[in-house]
Amino acid sequence: MTNPADHLIDLLDLEQIELNIFRGRSPDESLQRVFGGQVAGQALVAAGRTTDGLRPVHSLHAYFLRPGRPGVPIVYQVERVRDGRSFTTRRVVAVQQGRTIFNLTASFHQPEPGFEQQLPMPVVPEPEKLPNLADEVRERLGTLPEAWERMARRMAFDIRYVDRLRWSHEELVGVEPRSAVWMRAVGPLGDDPLVHTCAVAYASDMMLLDAVRVPIEPLWGSRGFDIASLDHAMWFHRPLRADEWFLYEQESPVATGGRGLARGQIFDREGRLLVSVMQEGLFRPRGADQPATG
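Given the sequence above, the corresponding structure tokens read:
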């Protein structure tokens, strides 16, 4: 079987079909809709391919407009908004079967000399002292359900929760809306900085909205909500490698009106803040009349 990390590299390797137009694969994985992190990562690749490669991305802001269909290619149309002396700006529209499903604006900046400061990384156990996600589920259930086993084999990232998973509502009493995981790609991703940045963009959407759900329901098992990402924003502070361990700390400051806001911070093992993330999601009780969007 192909290494899932190689599959991720292939997923992020877009086909250029015209100037400023790229096409990305969308695997048919029997999902209801395309994973949002895939679309964000591919859109960022498209934006980066139209720059000179000398200015790393420092921020992106995106909206999930419609659910993407698995198995159907996605076309990314890039607008070269600005090429300035210090900043480069690109706007990307993702189109599938003639309909816009996602848009993204990304800004690239050549780092300049300046002062540095940051808040410290939280003190957490090292990743080697924690079980990976699949092993933790196996420990609880004795064996992985077939669907989870297939998912574990395809997972491009090794994920290790800092706090053990909670399986019952009784375990949620007094729990704050916070979560933290160690992550890294399950294999090497090469040396292209854009690939590593886009891989982290892909990973950043994997469980950020779970921070909203932490006090409400167990993260594993049947869900009481249909959840859809509405928007996504990232700020890249320092160079990074997605195939080395990074800590993804998440929290939800508020949930109201059917929407929940989550924010995340990504640190390397030395405690340097690499990326900041914000995302809002729709949380609709299952069985509600209105269908989920996103």
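The first helix runs from residue 4 to 11. Try to locate this feature in the token string yourself.
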